[in-house]
Amino acid sequence: MSSAGLHQTDYVTLGETVTDLLKSLAKLPYWIILLIAGVVLIALPCVTVGDHSWKTHSPDTLLLVIVGLALVALSVLAFALTPWLNRAASHAEASAGLDLSRVKEDQGTLSTTVSGCEIRVISGRIEECAADERTAIVLPCNEYFDDRCVADPRSALGAYAGRVFEGQQEKLISLIQEECKRKFGEGTEQQKTNDERAHSFGAGHCVLITRPLGRSVPIALVSTTTQRASQGLSARISYLFEGMQQLISCLADARIAEVVMPVLGAGHGGVDASLAFVGLVLGIAEAARYGQGMQRLRKVTIVVLKRDASAAPEVDEVVVRRTLALVGSQS
Asked: Measured in whole angstroms, how far is the alpha carbon of residue 141 from the centre of its chain?
């Protein structure tokens, strides 16, 4: 009785071991499973196991060896194709439910069309983008439209001002303040920091300067962040929608239909770059559909920040494609 019980326990333990082994194998990549199966089939006809030893010999049958070699070859092929298959699966997942054929690609520029407006996305730096008098450069600033943004080289406005208005930043600040007061009045005094009060012109507002300090390229400033004492800078996606509507109004008055802008709302505002990009594109698409009379946007170029040649753009290409496909599919 005891001997039978011992054998039964051994069988149970062996069964559990085999089950655990099969579970572990099932978690492995399929090409590894094929490789293991192939090696086992090749070895089986060549090995004889005795009571306490084993020995090798010529294969008893070539069939298992041939099948094993085929599985090994298939495993090697699968391993080589795995990166390509993963990319294809990622692409299929990214395009699920969207018509990516509406997104065009030309020399690294992705684009789509919404209500006759071409929305283009490139990577680089806003201060390095060339434009003329028919294209406005759109830049983010805070609700005070003050020197903090212009003097900060880490911001898009500061980087652009440092490159284009080098040595004239103070004059540019004065010009911006004059335009704000002319358009919005004196503003509302707010406690900007614990030690400073300033006049706010509101978030989601826009001013357009057609010939800033004698330059031919117009600049538009959109307030995308607020600042309050003990709260710091803060951006909201809703400011982008309001800002795009005001931008369209300013451009319509000046008969400008093309703009270049960075991803507004990212950076110091604290909004994730990808989220800010999606909000910006949706805001542009809405503004493009409901433009001012016959004066509508014809081309918008969004510059996704790429700090240098070796760095990756701050917004992944998958996000760019999906967002453009989303707004383009609604044209």
From this structure: 22
Q: What residues contact residue 137 under an 8 Å CB cut-off, 6+ apart?
A: 126, 129, 131, 160, 217, 218, 219, 220, 259, 260, 261
The gap from C-alpha 39 to its chain's centroid, in whole angstroms, comes to 44
Does pTM top 0.90 for this prediction?
Answer: no
Decide: 208 and 252 in contact? Cβ < 8 Å. no
Gap between the Cα atoms of 151 and 173, Å rounded: 9
Please give the structure tokens belonging to residue 19: 């089950």
C-alpha 106, offset from chain centre? 18
Q: How far apart are CA 108 and CA 304, in angstroms?
A: 12
Tell me if 46 sits within 8 A of 56, measured CB to CB.
yes
pLDDT confidence band for 56 (50 / 70 / 90): confident
pLDDT at residue 21, as a whole number: 61
Domains defined along the chain, listed by start: 2-94 (no CATH), 100-328 (3.40.220.10)
**pLDDT beyond 50 at 2:** no
